[in-house]
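Example record used in the benchmark description.
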Amino acid sequence: MFARLRSDIQCILERDPAARSAWEVLTLYPGLHAVVLHRPAHWCWHHGLRWLGAFIAHFARWVTGIEIHPGAKIGERVFFDHAMGVVVGETAEIGDGCTIYQGVTLGGTSLYKGTKRHPTLGRDVVVSAGAKVLGGFTVGDGARIGANAVVIKPVPAGATAVGIPARIIPGTPAQREAAGGRETFLAYGVTQSDDPLSLAMRGLIDNASSQEHQIALLWQAIETLSAGRGQKAECVPSDAARDECFEAEKLTQLVGK
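Model output (structure tokens):
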């Protein structure tokens, strides 16, 4: 019991730069209190004491602002950071090492009792502020859910899901952000380069700029060949794009770098 509590405190000290001491975490972190209170509630729920389990969960919600159904399964070293307004459904499962921020809902889309209605989070998943993960599917190990994303389908291991409805970005954030191959913890799970729409727009802008450059080179080559033969460049229209005027840099700034 105490070893598990020490592990919970240590994981918070590792992931939250605002945490100054173990005593501060133990006394002032509602995310830790919610996890500690959930364990007896979960035990009661699965040993026939469902009213008592629900009462402990209700008390924990009143004290911490975090609502965890006593039937939910929570692994070790799970950190609810800030976490006001978090809702975890009855059949939800949270794997070891997960980090969940404020306003997150692990909800269900089915009304049938006895079915797997809520999501399963693998190990080391980060669910950012305001995200909604809805359904009885699995979010793979090391996946990241962006802030305010609405996830309604499985997320592969190591991928990042952002947007409404969530779109999947392959590859782990660590692969995109690691320096010298060292994996680091990313607060809130996503980076500025994780928006798939911005990535697509930047790709289109780069492609359009490249095409204009190629067209300008072609017209310049035609003019040079015509002049070398002593002929007028009658085949070159007066409005031919000999110079590049596509403002790719400005458009890239608009969609975000």
